[in-house]
Amino acid sequence: MLSLNIVVCVKQVPDTAVERTLTSAGTLDRASLDGLINELDEYAIEEGLKIAEAQGGEVTILSMGPGKASESIRKALSMGADKAVHVSDEALAGSDALATSLVLAAAVRSAGFDLVICGSESTDARTGVVPAMLAERLGVPQLTLASKVEISGTDVTVRRVSDEGYEVVTGSLPAVVSVVEKINEPRYPSFKGIMAAKKKPVRVLSLADLAVDPGAVGLASAATGVADFAVRPARAAGEIVTDEGDGGVQAAAFLAGRKFI
Amino acid sequence: MAEVLVLAEHSGGEVKKVTAELLTAARRLGEPSVVWAGPGAAEGRARLAEFGAVTVYVADSPDFAGFVVAPKAELLAQLVAEKSPAAVLVAGTTEGKEIAGRLAVKTNSGVLTDAVDVTAGPDGPVAEQANFGGAITVRSTVRAGTPVIAVRPNAVSAEAAEGAAELVSVGFAASDAAKGARVTERVAAEKGARPDLTEAQIVVSGGRGTGSADGFKVIEELADALGAAVGASRAVTDAGWYPHQFQVGQTGKTVSPQLYAAIGISGAIQHRAGMQTSKTIIAVNKDPEAPIFEIADFGVVGDLFKVVPQLEDEIAKRKQL
Question: Hey, are the CB atoms on B309 and A248 less than 8 Å from each other?
Fold first, then answer.
C-alpha cells in the first residue's frame, strides 16, 4: 500500500448567507464576519480522507489566513485530518491570487506532498484560478474540476467537468487536484473527532519560516488593485400581481411589452 | 496602437460567441490579435474579421486538445514574450480562468477574473467586476506585468467592426511540463437544442416549488417556448430533480441573461448571487413574502402549475399572430 502525503488547502470564508461588505481599501471586510470553511473545500477534505483511507497516507490541512482561520482548521481536523499547517502573517493581508498561490506553493513544498487537493473556487473571491496556479508553480499535473478521482498506483485519473460534458484526464503523482461540488458527501465531525482534533498538531508558519519575501505579498504589492467600488443600487421591486386566474396572461403581456415574445 | 491578445474559443472551426465579445472589448484597449490554438482557423477567419481581428496567430498543435490547459497557457506566454501586448483577454469560463491563472504565474502578471466590462484607463485596462453575486461593483486595474483579464461570457455586447484577420502561423511545441495532464476521453453531455446556460439570452429556472423531477418538466416546457436555457436552484439539484451542472447560484453557474424567469424559487441570497445581474427578472411563487419578489421586475403570486401553463399557451397564441 502506498503511503500518500495528501495536502488539502482550506480557506476560511464569510458565510454566504449574510451580506458581505468591502473595507475602504476595497478588500473584503473579514473582521466583522463569522467565518466558516469554504464549502467546496469540505469536499476536498472528504476526498482527501477517502483517498488516505483507501490508499494509506496522511492528510495535512493547509490554510493561509488570519488567526481566526484556526476555527476552520480545527473543524477540518475534527473531520479526521491528521495535522495542519497554518500560514499566518500580518504581511499577507490583502494578498491577491498571484501572491496566495506563491505562499501556498511554498507551504506545500515545505510540508512535502504527493497530492494537493483544493476546492475548485472560494465563495468569497470566486476567482477559480488558485488550483491551476498551484499546479503551474509546483510544476506538477493539473487535474482540476474533478467530479471523480481514482488513484491506481502512481496514476491519478479524474473526471474533469466542463460546460460541454466531461473529460477523463490522467496524470502521475505528485499532482494538484481540485474538486467540484457533489463529488462526495462530506462527513460531519463526530464527538470523538472533535475531542481528538484538540490534540492534533497545528504548525503555525510565518512568511519568514517559508522564506517568502513579505514584499511579494499583501495589499501594497498586489499585482491587481481596486480602482474604486460601489454598492450596486438595490434592484427596485417591479410590479407584483396576485394570480386571480389570469396571472399567466399578465406575465405574457409583460414579456411582450419588453419584446421577449 | 498597442496589440491586445484575445484567446479564441472555438469548436470545429466555429467561433464561439464569447470570442466576438472579447474582440469588442479588446478594440477599446488597442489592436486586437486573436490567438487560435488548434485546428480550424481558416474556417473561423471570416467571423474573426467581422469583429475586428487584425491578426490571427495560429498554432495548430494536437497538444491543445490532448492535454489540459497548460499548453494554451504556454502558447500565450510565448506570444506575450514576443509581442509585448497591452493585455491578454480570455473567456471567463472555468477553463479560461485556469488558463489566465497559469499565464499570470508564468508572466508574473496581475489577473482579473469575471470581468463584466473592460475599458481603457490612464494606467491600462480597467475591469469591472460584480462581486458577491453582483451586490458590489468593483473596478480593478493590474499593477504588475501584462494584464490578464478573464471576461464573463454574455457580459459585453459584441459589436461588428471590420478587420483583416491575417492568418500568421506560429511555431509552438508544448514542453514536457505542460503535458502532465493527458486527456484520454471526452464525453459530451446531452444538451439537446437548448442554448448554453451561461450564454443564453433567456434563462428559465425552477426551484423547490416544482416539487419533483416530474414537476420540473413545466420549466423545460416554458424554456422551450421562449427558446431559453434551463437553470435550477440548488434545492432542485440537491434533490436530484435536475442535473447538477444546471445549478444557478453561489456554488453553481453565474448567469446574466437579458431575461431570467425564476419559477418556484424563493430567492435566497445564495441563489440571487448567481442571477441578480440579469437585465430583466420575472418571478412566479406562491409565497408573497418570497425574497425573489424584491428584485423581480414583474412577479406573479400564485400556483406555478396554473400560471406557467397559461403563460405557455399565451406565448403560443402570440406566436401565431
Answer: yes
B14 touching chain A per CB within 8 A = no
Q: Give, to the nearest 10 degrees, the angle between helix B70-83 and helix B94-107.
A: 50
What is the distance between the alpha carbons of residues B45 and B55, in angstroms, rounded to a whole number?
10
Q: What is the largest CA-CA distance in chain B?
A: 62
Q: Measure CB to CB from residue A240 to each of B250, B251, B293 and give the nearest one.
A: B293
Q: Identify whether the C-beta of residue B91 lies closer than 8 Å to the C-beta of residue B151.
A: yes
- Do A120 and B93 touch, CB atoms closer than 8 A? no
Concatenating the DSSP letter of every residue in chain A gives ---EEEEEE--EEE-TTS---B-TTSSB--TTS-EEE-HHHHHHHHHHHHHHHHH-EEEEEEEES-GGGHHHHHHHHHHT--EEEEE--GGGTT--HHHHHHHHHHHHHHH--SEEEEES--SSS----HHHHHHHHHTS-EEEEEEEEEEETTEEEEEEEETTEEEEEEEESSEEEEE-TTSS-PPPPPHHHHHHHTTS-EEEE-HHHHT--GGGSTTTT-SEEEEEEEEPPPPPP-EEEE-SS-HHHHHHHHHHHTT--
Judge contact between B285 and B264, C-beta under 8 A.
yes
Residues of B in contact with A140 (CB under 8 A): 180
pLDDT of residue B312: 96
ipTM over 0.95: no
Predicted confidence (pLDDT) per residue in B165-203, tens digit: 999 999 999 999 999 999 999 988 776 778 889 889 999
Calculate helix-pair angle for A130-138, B70-83, nearest 10 degrees: 80
The label of the residue with cell 441563489 reads B271
Mind listing the pLDDT tens digit for each residue in A81-98?
999 999 999 999 888 999
Instruction: Tell whether A215 lies on the interface with B, counting CB pairs under 8 A.
Output: no
pTM, entire model: 0.88
Q: B246: alpha, beta or left, given left = phi > 0 and alpha = psi -120 to 50?
A: alpha
Tens of pLDDT, residue by residue over A123-172, are 777 788 999 999 999 999 999 999 999 999 999 999 999 877 899 999 99
- Those residues whose C-beta lies under 8 Å from the C-beta of residue A164, and which sit 6 or more positions away, are B186, B188, B189, B191
Q: Name every chain B residue with its beta carbon within 8 A of the beta carbon of A260.
A: 202, 226, 258-259, 280
